[in-house]
Design goal:
about 425 residues, alpha/beta, 2 domains, binds iron/sulfur cluster
Length: about 425
């Protein structure tokens, strides 16, 4: 593939080399390859404050968690770079007009959550909990309103980076100390920005408020095997990556976008360069901190999907998921046709068959239930408006079942093309 160690990160400004680097690992093959090669080629340095981050939407395939764990363990043990997993979550905070819910992140261990988990050191969740909490609190995402990326990955990731760069012992506690939720029903309804009947409002409130409304203080050290050599006590806080109080604290953000994804690279770079020139406090792009300097080394090195596949074909381990099940398993961006083929394939699979995974996002029925529960009531047609305009997950499931009856198995579903590239890392 011709990696040139000196050029793996081609800095557009020599000063960027001195800044902490944050590697965004999505759990997929491309960003895994990128993170491993950056570490291997000596482009990441523990002393500079570099980290690798994995955002768990709680709706990923079990094989993705397994792969992400293997990659992160390898990066830590062989190259000494800390890898942190996090999930988006909501906390209840006081405002001038009362309590509301505000989104942030919590660190999670690289093992599955269980009932007895210490709230300061929880395992990761995989039954769609964070995704459903987000949907209950706001609206369902769709191709036109892709706020799941923002709410579950981008904003929580920025919060994490800001606290990491502060160099305290870990994220500070957030949320009130009362033992009941204080977010009132009308606040939930106001967030929805639409007409909600009483049942809908109560369902939403019940689901949103069943999740913890505070994040305990956490220690970075509990989530990585690397000895961070940070004090266990000391102030906790956030670095000013948004430039709210002057010049923004800068960091390099490394994305795993490839050369065959030029539109995504263009969007990411365009946003970054605008923010870099936005003089901090005047930056109007609310999801792009002016301190974040984006690099896309796979694209710069002309690495394509084919190169990534060749690389993993030679490795002793690989991402073991059905074709097309990357990112959130039934992400609406994949498009109805690809989702129907994926449903037929997963349904036909022994390993991830319906009987075993019914209540989780590996099963398309989980997504259908989400639409039924949180979709907008429609005035013009039966049912609710969910994540698509002209179809829904129930219809897609029926198509998958019909296709399976016709073809016997879901094996024809290899080579699923995404309707729209899932641009979670953009
Ligand atoms: S993969 Fe799809 S569903 Fe999941 S966060 Fe990204 S856009 Fe949303």
């Amino acid at each position: 593939m011709g990696f040139n160690p000196k050029a793996i990160l081609d800095y557009r400004d020599v000063r960027h080399e001195q800044l902490p680097h944050v590697v965004r690992f999505s759990g997929g093959r491309s960003s895994a390859l990128m993170a491993l090669r950056l570490a291997q080629e000596g482009a990441l340095h523990y002393d500079r404050g570099d980290i690798v981050l994995f955002a768990n939407t709680t709706a990923e395939h079990p094989g993705t968690y397994e792969f992400a764990r293997t990659v992160c363990n390898k990066i830590e043990t062989q190259f000494g770079i800390p890898c942190l997993w996090y999930e988006g979550c909501a906390v209840e905070v006081a405002t001038r007009t009362g309590y509301t819910r505000s989104r942030t992140f919590r660190l999670v261990l690289r093992r599955e959550a269980s009932d007895g988990d210490d709230p300061k050191k929880p395992g990761y969740r995989s039954r769609g909990e964070a995704f459903e909490e987000m949907a209950s609190w706001t609206r369902l995402p769709s191709r036109w309103r892709r706020m799941c990326t923002t709410e579950l990955k981008v904003r929580p990731g920025h919060d994490l980076v800001a606290e990491w760069l502060y160099e305290g012992p870990g994220p500070a506690r957030q949320g009130h100390h009362r033992d009941v939720s204080l977010a009132p029903a009308d606040v939930v309804a106001a967030r929805y920005r639409g007409t909600l009947d009483r049942d809908d409002r109560e369902t939403r409130l019940r689901v949103a408020c069943a999740e913890p409304w505070a994040r305990d203080e956490q220690d970075w050290q509990d989530f990585t095997s690397i000895d961070l050599k940070r004090s266990k006590v000391g102030p906790r806080g956030s670095a000013d990556i948004w430039g709210r109080f002057g010049g923004a604290q800068q960091f390099v953000s490394v994305l795993g976008l490839r050369a065959d994804e030029p539109e995504r690279v263009k969007t990411a770079m365009w946003r970054s360069l605008i923010a870099e020139g936005a003089a901090g406090t005047h930056c109007r792009d609310r999801i792009q901190p002016p301190g974040e300097l984006i690099y896309c080394p796979l694209s710069d090195l002309d690495i394509t999907d084919q190169d990534v596949r060749s690389f993993w074909a030679d490795q002793q381990y690989d991402l073991n998921i059905p074709t097309g099940a990357g990112n959130c398993v039934y992400c609406f961006l994949k498009g109805p046709a690809a989702l129907a083929r994926l449903a037929a394939q997963i349904d036909a699979s022994d390993e991830w068959g319906n009987g075993r995974a019914e209540a989780t996002p590996v099963d398309i029925r989980w997504w259908s239930r989400l639409e039924e529960t949180y979709g907008r009531p429609s005035t013009t047609k039966e049912g609710r408006i969910g994540m698509f305009h002209d179809t829904n997950y129930g219809i897609i499931l029926n198509q998958a079942t019909d296709a399976k009856k016709l073809n016997g198995t879901g094996s024809e579903s290899n080579g699923i093309e995404l309707g729209v590239p899932c641009s979670c890392t953009d």
